[in-house]
Each structure stands twice: as structure tokens, then as C-alpha cells.
Please model this.
Amino acid sequence: MVKKTKYIFVTGGVVSSLGKGITSASVGALLKARGLKVGMLKIDPYLNVDPGTMSPYQHGEVFVTEDGAETDLDLGHYERFLNENLNKSSNVTAGEIYDELIRRERKGEYLGKTVQVVPHLTDLIKAKIKKAGRNKDVAIVEIGGTVGDIEGLPFLEAIRQFKYETERKNILYMHISLVPYIKAADEIKTKPTQHSAIKLREIGIDPDIIICRTEKHLTSGQREKIALFCDVPKDAVIEEIDVGEGNIYKVPLLLHREKLDRLIFRHFSVLPRRQNLKKWETLVRKSEKFSQVLNIAVAGKYTFVRDAYKSIKEALFHATLATRVKVRVRYIDTEKRNLADQLNGVSGVIVPGGFGERGTRGKMKICALARKKEIPFLGICLGMQLSLVEMARAFGLKQADSQEFNPATPHPVIAFLPEQKKIENKGGTMRLGGFACKIIPGTKAAEAYGKSVVFERHRHRYEFNNDYREFFERNGVIFSGINPERNLVEIAELKNHPWFVAVQFHPEFKSRFFEPHPLFSAFVSAAKSRKTKAGRR
Model:
């Protein structure tokens, strides 16, 4: 362990969506591979208290931690790259900070002082940062947004002040910038990066390392130019070339080849430790050797924004490492027509979670097609609920529904959780986080998990209504996973189907690069078997 916690502050410039989360996670993975204890913190400057009430169109998926925090999707990258569980202390928003500031002021904790951005707000921000670094060798702090955004200024001011509260040698400012390629001129342009670094210096932050996001390799001359105008050594100009829609787990290896980890150790005046990336390199090479391709459909209503299903896509990729196939994801908009045609050539179907009635008819049609055509199926959260509503109607309860969409339904197969009825505030009040699930022996779930009890993460307000359990069991449904504390249905599967499993929780949140989630692995394996059998006909 290093003598004093080191802090790496990651900022972004020129444009948003630069992949700061993947870069931060990759830096964390490199430092962990050298034996350091790494803490992670994502700071989001928006005024929402958390992303829980935000539309996926606005912010992509909401990632849920084991302790029940609704967080930014970048925490998913952090967990997957570090192979560690994070918690609610790993994500903070401007809304949360301002909310705490106002509550303290109302309680009189500021003793009549004029409450200001500096020092009161920035002090709260610095306290959150220090908490992330507690008992860690290195804390990586990612500042969301782009340098110059008005809402991000208090956070940049806080990390500027940080260098006065700890030695400068214990702080590293890492700036990620777009280096665009102009196709018409056939040139890479460094000017946006220069201006981004100038803007950062105007705020009082001198970057130590410049990470260049680029689709073309940088020349030595371009690196020298960036180094000169951004006031960093040439070897501190790090190229991070696009990996596109391919394997994002290449990024730590790319940054390692750029000697970023050595540069970080040099800056902190810490002797570099022997790195251990063999397992990482092996898995990346392994993933590139698979030749068989499976088409897997993800049927939802947020398909226009692929980040809405980020963890599902990653969980599918992890599963390919266990099943030795490539997965090509086919996104199906459940508000469109001709859904049956869109399943042509598909070896498996996932119906993910979501909220609201829009798109539910299409989701139920997809559930019905997967059931009747014996296509391997994985229903997640709302996907499970809609699959059971669809089956209830097929089994004779024509007016079966979820109380979420029809509170007056005569057959509430999916019912409102009792404790939710008195809740007025929507944010952070669902059934959230990890809960136990007892697995019934002799089921598809038991075969996948190989365990009698598992813990999975939840995010929902509605549950399967136990009053209908016997009705479903008479019609060939097996409830293969039960929460032992409250006797709630966690997993349902079809008896006479090759692989039809629906779960109330979100297994994608616990899938890792080194540890693929067993349900996703079993699902992809079933899809692989279907394609193999189809090829023999």
C-alpha cells in the first residue's frame, strides 16, 4: 500500500460521449493489475439527485449497485473492469450535493453564515472525493460533462482546490480530448485539444496527461504539437484509438502499450510494481478467435439509444467467452410493426426491463413468438412480468394484466408492492439492490447457477401476484427462484420449452469480464444449440 492516497482526476474536452468512463475504468484496471487498491468516483454535474427518474433517452441505462443505489452507467464499466462491487459512495451528482447543502443550511449548521459555492459547496464535493479515497492507494475521480459546461464549474473548482489540501505530487490531472479526423482534408486536427487544455488552464488546472481519443493513429509531429501547446511532456500525450463497436476490453491493453501506467507511477514518484495482465490479454485474444456468429434479439422501446441496454450488451459479450461464439445484437423496437419478421434468423430473444405502458404490446408479442416458436428466451424485470401476463391470457385469463398498466384489471397477475402505495417521491424508492433468491433443484435456473442460493440486484415496484401461482403451475410454469424472506417469485420458466427463463431481477448488472453471469451463459449456450440444430436440418 502507498503511504498516502493518490488522486487521479479525469476531465473531458471538446465533446461529450468521449468514453471517459471506459478510460477511467481502464486506468483502474491497469493500476489494480499492478497490485494497487483502487477507488472509483463518478461525479455528474446535472441537478437530478440521481439518474433514477431520468429517461433512458436522456442518460442511457440506470446502473444499480449491490447496496441499492441508482447510479450512472459508468459505474457498470467500473465494476466490470475492476471486477469489484461498488456502492452508493461511488457516484455523486450536483443535485445530491445541493440537496445536502440546503438541508444543512436549514438545520442551521452554517451558524448564520452566507452559504456560497466557495467554500461551502466545494467543501462538500471535496469531502465526497476524500471518502472515495479512504483506505485506497489510488482514487480515480471522473468529472462528467465537458470542460466549459456551466454546471461543471463548481466541481472543477473543487478539484483545483484539492492540490492545496494535499501535496501536488499526490494529484494527477488527466484530460481526455477528441482529436478529430477531417475526412475532406484527410487530416487530423489538434486545435480542439489545444483549446480544451487552454480552457482547463484558465480554470486553474494544469493537465499532467492528455489522452487523445482518435480514429487515426497520431504521428510523432502531432504528438509534439499537442505536447507543446498543452504544456505537457511528449510522452504524456497518450493515444487512445477507437475500438468502435468491438471489444472495449482492449482499451486497458492499448493504454498499457502507450505506457500510461508507467507514466502514472512516475508522476506519483512511486516505484512501479510488476504488472499482471496475462489473464486480461488471454481473454481478449480468446474473444477474437470465435468464428460462429449468433443473432440475439433485444426487444425494447429504447433501442434508439443503445446505452439504454449497455449492461445487457456487455453481459452477452461476457457470455461469448464462456460459450465460444460471437454474438451479434439485433435491436428490435417493440413499437414497430412486423415484429415476427424481425425474428427471422434470430437464435435467442431478450426482453429487457423498462417502465410505462408504451411498447408493452410489442413486448408481449415477442414473448408469445419466443414461446410458440421455441426460441431461447430471457425476460428481465418488466420482460418477466409481460411474459407472465401474455401466458395468463393464452391460458384463458383474457383480461389478465399488470396493475402498472391497468389498476382495475380483474386478474392482476402483476401487482403493486404493498409498501409502494404510500410513496409519493419516485426517486430511489423502488425495491432496489441485492436480494436473496433460493433456487429450486432440477430446474433450468439450478442448472445455470449450480447453487442453491444466489443474490441478485433489483429495480422495480411491481411483483408477481402469488394468488396466481397454482394457476400458472397447472399450465406448465415452474417458479424456479423464490425470495426466501418474503416468498416473492424471482424466476419463472416454462416446462415444455428448450430454454424459456424470466427473472424479476437484473442479472446483467452482475456480469463481469472475468466472471460471465451464469444465466447469460446458459441463455447463449441454448441459442447456440438452437442454431446448431437448425443447421443440421
